[in-house]
Design a protein that fits this description.
The chain is an alpha+beta fold. It contains 13 helices and 19 strands. The strands form 3 sheets. Strands 1, 4, 5, 6, 7, 8, 9 and 10 form an 8-stranded antiparallel sheet that branches. Strands 11, 12, 13, 14, 15, 16, 17 and 18 form an 8-stranded antiparallel sheet that branches. Bound molecules: flavin mononucleotide.
Length: 477
Amino acid sequence: MMTETDPTAALDAVLRYHEASKHRAGGFAPGPGPVDWDGQPAAVRRYPGSYRLPLVASRVPPGPAGAMTLGRMLALSLGVTAWKVEGDDARPVRAVPSSGGLYPVEAHVIAGGVLGLTDGIWHYDPEAHGLELRAEAEVSPGLWVALSSVMGREAWKYGIRAFRYTQLDLGHAIGALANGAAAMGWPVAMLPPEGLGDLLQPGDGETPEILLSIGSSGAPAIRNARWQGGAEPVGAGLCDPWPELREVAAATAAPPGWGDPVPGAGVPRPKPQHLQARRSARRFTAKEPVPAGSLARILAALAPQNAPGGFWPFAPAVHAFAMIHKVEGVAPGLCLLPRGRGAPDLPGTAEPLLPGLVRLREGDLRRDARRLSCGQGIAAEGALCLSLVAETAPIAADPWRYRQLHWEAGLLGQRLYHAATAEGLGASGIGCFLDGEAAAFLGLDPARHAVLYHFAIGRARPDPALRDRPPDPPSDW
Ligand SMILES: Cc1cc2nc3c(=O)[nH]c(=O)nc-3n(C[C@H](O)[C@H](O)[C@H](O)COP(=O)(O)O)c2cc1C
């Protein structure tokens, strides 16, 4: 990745990008116009000619890392868990959500001395649930998952907003992998991606982003990599119409090092069935209100004392507004859950539902939630709609934080999906919101705080298109 080394120029690029990629009541951020369905890039990159290893997805008990347990971990975090069938169209539903279902995140496994895996660098194909051996190599003992992004997949449909969506998706993927690993009893640590480009040798249009060590410590040492198979193209050039995408990516390149993981609650061991049952609600029903206890537990998943910690090397910096619509015994209105430094300083009273939660006002906010979420019904129909925001000061001090704060918002989104699923409720990320209007509605000064993500939770209406099994036999694996 090209990096912008002048901090003033980097900050200018971030501010320019953020402004240019805002949706406004008067018009959406620049995009490609009518969607070119024939030009859609493949959702999974493939490496023809590489050795392929099918993985097992079925129940494998927690245990040491090996091909069997890794297969289970990847199935629970990034794998296909169901199918949506509409007419002739069948689409996989994965354990991780994605903006527009475009899946800009690719996962590469680095294995050294892992039972059942050749030492080297593998690529995970979620649709086939298998690994492609990209390079045999001498690897120091351990297991790592490296994440890279193909921003062109998002730019193809969403134009200039692609950087934001891609980074939110990465945050979701980090959360999904942390959960999948926790389900297998494995600790995770997030490592700075220094040297990741040399290590992964990504194909065109793909950017190395994140390195997670799974149950091991430190970065992998790799020697004598013997690459095989060639990366299929995935629509390089799709970001070109928006030079701001290249500029913001360069301005927010991760620094070579970051701090140790912050102390925190760690990742509680999730129930595999909750990881498998995660999906986005397309509609909600508001006939029955959601119990207050459910809301309290869902919001508690965001509370700073339950911050990821353990593996996440950044202090909490994303704060949550909750527009509460229909929750038993809780007055509709606006609440704020501050999550550490830089929280908006707004007058309110303690809301007894959860320690730390502040009631800002009462009132029916359904119309506002819909309007601010680009007119989407899911923001109004359910029990609540969240708006995740961050202070801009950390970005002014270090522009790369713009990327990192989107990861944090995505990570919180993944927590919300799982907390809602565990309560038997539905949820959906909402990347389409009116930036300035939402900030003004929440009482924020847009120069001091930025809105990063919206999120809806409620009782999901059953989706008749959902199937547990693929309609056809799986591909050529
Ligand atoms: C960052 C992000 C933004 C999203 N934005 C929206 C949105 O604005 N509206 C919506 O209906 N769904 C949104 N979704 C949900 C996706 O459409 C959904 O994850 C995708 O279609 C895959 O379906 P699944 O989550 O059921 O697996 C978003 C998801 C993510 C991760």
